[in-house]
Design a protein that fits this description.
The complex is a heterodimer of chains A (285) and B (439). Chain A is an all-alpha fold and 285 residues long. Chain A is 80% helix and 0% strand. In chain B, the strands form nine sheets. In chain B, strands 6, 7, 8, 13, 14, 15 and 16 form a seven-stranded mixed beta sheet that branches. Chain B has a five-stranded parallel beta sheet with strand order 18-25-19-20-21. In chain B, strands 1-4-28 form a three-stranded antiparallel beta sheet. Chain B has nine helices and 28 strands. Chain B folds into three domains: 114 residues, Alpha-Beta Plaits (2-Layer Sandwich); 196 residues, FAD/NAD(P)-binding domain (3-Layer(bba) Sandwich); 102 residues, FAD/NAD(P)-binding domain (3-Layer(bba) Sandwich), CATH 3.50.50.60. In chain B, helix 4 runs parallel beside helix 5. The chains are: A mainly alpha (285), B alpha/beta (439). Chain A: Keywords: Membrane, Transmembrane, Transmembrane helix.
């Protein structure tokens, strides 16, 4: 059972088209206005296309309006559909979420070009809220969910390295009396309950200690290097696992940034639009 | 100065929104966690049949599954992750499975700690005995659409496998007239097979025992000889109307109240089915579509065969002004007694002295109904005789007494059809957390 193969291909095509639109639009906008956007702020007024690209210009203003429209549609299509299921007869929520991600990625990109990379004034609160919303969305939908897989993948690699260490140390035990001491030292580090930041500072000292202990065994250079690199690789992996666990703890709260800041962004946006219209900027209307 | 004021105001506003979101989220999480704890205490946390499994590594806490579930408090969110609450009340609609925007939900049967007996079925719905097929909820996957599709596919596969030479007049006997059995019968008709449909109770199947009157199906299904069928908040009565219409139109007869007691294999693709009516039906193949509800457990008392005895309550609104006895101490008995209490004189007989393991809501409603006299309790009693206008009951001390009675509803649990399958030679395995449907 499960999704049919044909359905999967249509889905992949759907996702690819959406991703392609975002990439093409971003590249086109960057290419079109490259010269203007890289001009220093104080000199832009004298740029030959200033009236076209500036935030209140025909092009720049249009980008802002279209970008805002895309975000608004993206938000007000997905949230009610998710909460009340009113579109479930026509479209699966999964596709709608992907469409929400598409509109709310493309919209902010258009708004970024609308700002002409000039961030200031009260409206910058809306801009940075938007950035926070987009980033937290990426974290919540992709990165946070990926962490457990990365952790288990690294745990597996670490396990392999630990087994390698066991083998090396049991071989060492046959030739050197001090090996059990070294082994004990490594175990202590592995079972260390310190937090991520404390472990980070502890790492180098510990490694150096192990290095000198290993040096005292007077092994041949090749064996010495191999054991040392194994210990280092295992310790680095352990550090990475701790880092991922820390990220997992932090990223768990992605929605605390995503949802409230979307509201803040929309509130400031309404003020921004109101002020703009009051000042007579009506674009083509 | 103005800038400071404006920025200050916006920062305060932002802080207030984040704080409100955070605290209300925490409050909701705590409420759900308390419900989970209560469900664990009351033994309702472990699912008994088909249920959703939420992959915590995929769940983004959208809450779409909670909204989609037609029942209450089966699913909830704790700290932005979906969780099961009263999982034992899940009846396997599967609406959550379709609603999840990130495909984090799969449908499973059994859990790591609670095994469920499932017959072994090949991908073509055939059992380990060539010629016997299983479709619908009995195979693990319920839901109207899935059951009907399985009935159709089982019949299709069977039509291809049946050898041409056989002395039997009947190509296939379909046991059960729920969605799977009806769809199989329609397919058999379409394929030009000779068939009989035997149903131990009456047309409809497990779906009529669902706690809600409305039947919801998220996507349409193709019914042979009918076309697309879409049930969007359709009442059970309307669904029965649809079944009757399509069966009448194609002159398909359902032999109701004809329970198959035993299936015996006479030879290859040759079976004999003994029914409760004393008939022996021979057929080349069998489709078992009897669901997992099983046979209602009987009291085994004189008079139980009377027409006033029922084992399920279908249309409580039609029962008015009668003296009714409800037997049982579980949720089904209590809910039925409550449904009948407003317009009837209701007695509730339970063999124990206390109602245990019933939903908290039912407990509260029952206590109120008992306090107001709407329901008269007969605790520590057992029915000993059923007569036309009265009933005899026996107390724990052995003393007997009579009450006037027009109707009796018995909810003494059900006997799963597993021994029936094993008797027919079908392999049944205990399954622990088997995934039956995933994206």
């Amino acid at each position: 059972m499960g999704t049919a193969g044909k359905g999967n291909w249509w889905h992949i095509l759907y996702q690819s088209i959406l991703a392609l639109i975002v990439i093409i639009v971003t590249l086109w906008l960057g290419f079109e206005g490259y010269d203007y956007y890289q001009t220093p702020l104080e000199e832009r007024f004298y740029h030959e296309h200033h009236e076209w690209f500036k935030a209140s210009g025909l092009f720049g203003h249009g980008l802002g309006i279209i970008g805002t429209a895309l975000i608004t549609i993206g938000v007000f299509l997905y949230i009610p559909a998710k909460k009340y299921g009113f579109l479930e007869k026509y479209m699966r929520l999964r596709y709608l979420l992907e469409f929400h991600i598409f509109l709310c990625t493309l919209g902010p990109i258009l708004i970024l070009f609308h700002t002409t990379f000039k961030f200031g004034g009260i409206v910058s609160i809306a801009f940075w809220s938007m950035v926070l919303v987009v980033l937290s969305g990426v974290v919540g939908r992709y990165i946070y969910l990926q962490i457990p897989r990365s952790i288990s993948g690294r745990e597996l690699s670490r396990q392999e390295l630990k087994e390698e260490q066991e083998r090396s140390l049991s071989t060492l035990a046959m030739v050197a009396d001090q090996a059990p001491e070294l082994y004990q030292h490594i175990r202590e580090y592995q079972n260390d309950e310190k937090g991520y930041f404390a472990r980070r500072t502890h790492f180098r000292n510990h490694f150096n200690q192990l290095k000198s202990q290993l040096g005292a065994l007077q092994l041949d250079a090749k064996e010495h290097k191999s054991i040392l690199s194994n210990i280092k690789a295992e310790m680095v992996l352990q550090q990475r696992i701790h880092r991922l666990a820390l990220m997992q703890k932090l990223f768990k709260y992605w929605h605390v940034a995503h949802r409230p800041f979307a509201l803040i962004m929309l509130l400031v946006l309404i003020i921004h639009i109101g002020v703009t219209m009051a000042m007579g900027y009506t674009w083509i209307f | 100065m103005w800038e400071v004021l404006i920025y200050g105001f916006v920062i305060l506003l932002s802080g207030a929104i984040v704080w409100y979101y955070w605290s209300s989220g925490q409050k909701r999480s705590k409420e759900v966690a308390a419900k989970v704890e209560q469900a664990q205490e009351e033994g309702r946390f472990q699912p008994v049949s088909l249920h959703p499994y939420i992959d915590p590594h995929k769940c983004i806490g959208s809450g779409a599954c909670v909204r989609a579930c037609p029942e209450e408090d089966i699913l909830g969110l704790i700290d932005g992750k979906g969780t099961l609450i009263n999982a034992s009340s899940c009846i396997g609609h599967g609406a959550c499975f379709h609603a999840c925007p990130v495909d984090a939900i799969s449908l499973r049967i059994g859990t790591e700690v609670r095994g469920v007996d499932l017959p072994h079925i090949k991908p073509n719905y055939e059992t380990n005995i060539s010629g016997i097929y299983i479709a619908g909820e009995l195979g693990g996957m319920g839901l109207i659409k899935n059951s009907a599709e399985q009935g159709v596919q089982a019949c299709n596969n069977l039509a291809e496998e049946l050898p041409s030479e056989c002395s039997c007049e009947t190509d296939v006997v379909i046991i059960g007239a729920g969605p799977a059995g009806i769809a199989a019968a329609l397919k058999a008709k379409e394929k030009g097979l000779t068939f009989r449909v035997l149903e131990q109770d009456s047309l409809g199947g497990t779906v009529f025992t669902f706690p809600r009157d409305k039947v919801v199906m998220t996507s349409p299904m193709d019914l042979p000889l009918y076309g697309k069928l879409k049930l969007n908040n359709t009442s059970k009565a309307e669904l029965l109307g649809i079944w009757n219409e399509v069966l009448d139109k194609h002159q398909i007869q359902i032999e109701e109240h004809s329970k198959v007691e035993r299936i015996s294999q006479i030879g290859a693709y040759h079976f004999k089915l003994d029914t409760s009516k004393g008939e022996a039906v021979e057929a080349r193949s069998v489709i078992i579509a009897i669901g997992r509800r099983g046979t209602p457990r009987k009291l085994g008392v004189p008079g139980e065969e009377s027409s006033k005895v029922a084992y399920r309550l279908l249309e409580p609104e039609h029962i008015q002004g009668e003296k009714v006895l409800v037997v049982g101490g579980g949720d089904s008995a209590v809910e039925s007694a409550l449904l009948l209490a407003d317009h009837n004189e209701v007695h509730l007989s339970y063999r124990k002295q206390h109602f245990a393991r019933i939903k908290k809501g039912n407990q509260e409603k029952l206590e109120a109904a008992l306090a107001s006299g709407k329901i008269s309790p007969l605790l520590g009693t057992n029915v000993s005789r059923i007569e036309e206008k009265k009933l005899s009951l026996v107390r724990e001390d052995g003393s007997e007494f009579e009450i006037e009675n027009d109707r009796i509803y018995i909810f003494a649990g059900g006997e799963l059809p597993i021994p029936f399958l094993q008797d027919a030679g079908i392999t049944v395995e205990k399954t622990f957390g088997k995934t039956l449907r995933k994206h």
